[in-house]
Amino acid sequence: MARMSEPVAFPWDTADRDERLAGTEIYESPVHLIGNTPLVKLGRLTAEAGMPCPLVIKWEVTNPGGSSKDRPALEMILAAERSGELRPGGTIVEPTSGNTGVGLAIVAAHRGYKCVFVTTTKVAPEKIDLLRAYGAEVVVCDVAVPPEDPDSYYSTAERLVQEIPGAYRPNQYANPNNPLSHEKTTGPEIWRQTAGRVTHFVAGAGTCGTITGTARFLKSKNPDIKIIAADPDASVYSGGSGRPYLIEGVGEDFFPAAWDPSVLDEIIACSDEEAYLMARRVAATEAVLLGSSGGLAIAGALKLKDRLTAHDLVVVLIPDSGRGYLSRVYNDEWMANYGFVRECDECVAAILDTRAEGLPPLLYVNPDDTVRQAIDVMRRNGVSQLPVCKNTPPFAVAEVSGSVSELALMNAVFHDSTIMDTPVGAVMGPKLPTIGIGQKLSKAVEMLDHAPAVLVLSGGRPLSVLSRTDVLSYLEVAAHG
């Protein structure tokens, strides 16, 4: 264990050190900058929230790849070199939401490897562009498929490993060097930087490498330190099914090898809305640009408020920067369209409030339901449009496959009566356009001029279908005061 005054560093082969730079503060490469990230107090936020103790962030953005994933990326590659699993000229293949890929790409570029990364449609486009900027090949898969599906990003990565000569998959979900990297570096850094005074550590759990590895070290120093996982409310860690949620990089639909509940004292579930709005709040009050997972971690930490004292010290790990989320978390139009923010008082929500009581919030059919079943749902509920959605409510936007309409089904059945027992997925039309529950009424009217109905989103999830009849009913009520 390093002394309190010494920074914690990765073991490194110093054979390539340039002795001409001895005595300077010049680093040999970006890889040598991994780790030793700062702790920063969030003063204004904690004062506004009424926190009785300091809340500080472990700001991983100062890693060369901009995230905490640089740490396991380096550890996994060095370990693979030592074991012979990764040889000179090899190709690194990994499924990633972006940050691990960036870390791997940086270390790979420094050590002469190619990279192929597999990601999903949930990942922000700028993250995909960033991976490509480092020279990696990126394969994008549909997020709305289960892990065992041949087209899932897990299955696709495994197939590429078999197809590419000299391929090596670090497999961050099962690689013991993932949590080990944080046990060796992140935990010791927090202990040293807080002079051993940390009482609570809060982090998101994705692969579980960060929270498990850090927890193992901190608990070894002081078993009374509380380890709290902040988790998307639909993730399996907090009792969900793994769907649906929009927060990137944390939460899961399965339990990875590094999942170790024995080191966790609590799991706090938060919604997409809580995470996204918290990220924006921190950016505005503290000048710290968070991603959605960072917003999740802060939101979870603030829920501890009533159990804390002035003697506590809460450390929240912020895994990356909000720069990778500018098109989503920090894009006002995107946030409004997904129903996270409200643009005005007279908005789509006001229209929904005027609808008949007892009408289900979202009527839908599954792709495997028959045309006959779709017609029956329309007839029983007096609607003419239905979204076609995979799985069961609540849905992710990505799980909406298409739509069916009364008019289209009438025409189809008129020309071929046998189609009544055909699955809806075979005859469905395109997805309905989407509008946020807080967007302006004028936007709904404009959209309905070109479409018979729109799909309303609230908190990032499909809530209801809005038709022209709904708008007319609202306007009629409004006209009569």
Question: How would you sum up this structure, described in words?
Answer:
By secondary structure, the protein is an alpha/beta fold. α15 (441-448) links the parallel β13 (434-436) and β14. It has a six-stranded mixed beta sheet with strand order 1-2-10-7-8-9. The protein has a four-stranded parallel beta sheet with strand order 5-4-3-6, with helices on both faces. It has a three-stranded mixed beta sheet with strand order 13-14-15. Helix content is 34%, strand content 16%.
Please outline the helices and strands.
Blueprint: E1 39-41, H1 43-49, E2 55-59, H2 70-83, E3 91-95, H3 99-111, E4 114-120, H4 125-133, E5 137-141, H5 153-163, E6 167-168, H6 177-184, H7 186-193, E7 200-204, H8 209-221, E8 226-232, E9 266-270, H9 272-286, H10 292-302, E10 314-318, H11 332-337, H12 348-353, H13 371-381, E11 385-389, E12 400-405, H14 406-415, E13 434-436, H15 441-448, E14 453-458, E15 461-467, H16 468-479
Parallel strand pairs: 2-10, 3-4, 3-6, 4-5, 7-8, 7-10, 8-9, 13-14
Antiparallel strand pairs: 1-2, 11-12, 14-15
Helix pairs in contact: 2-3, 2-6, 6-8, 7-8, 9-10
Q: Structural class given helices, strands, pairing?
A: alpha/beta
Profile the largest sheet.
6 strands, mixed
Multimeric organization: single chain
Mean pLDDT: 92
CATH topology of the largest domain: Rossmann fold
Global outline: globular
| First-to-last CA distance | 73 Å
Query: Any idea what the radius of gyration is?
Result: 25 Å
Number of helices: 16
Total beta strand runs: 15
Number of domains: 3
Q: Give unreliable regions as ranges.
A: 1-5
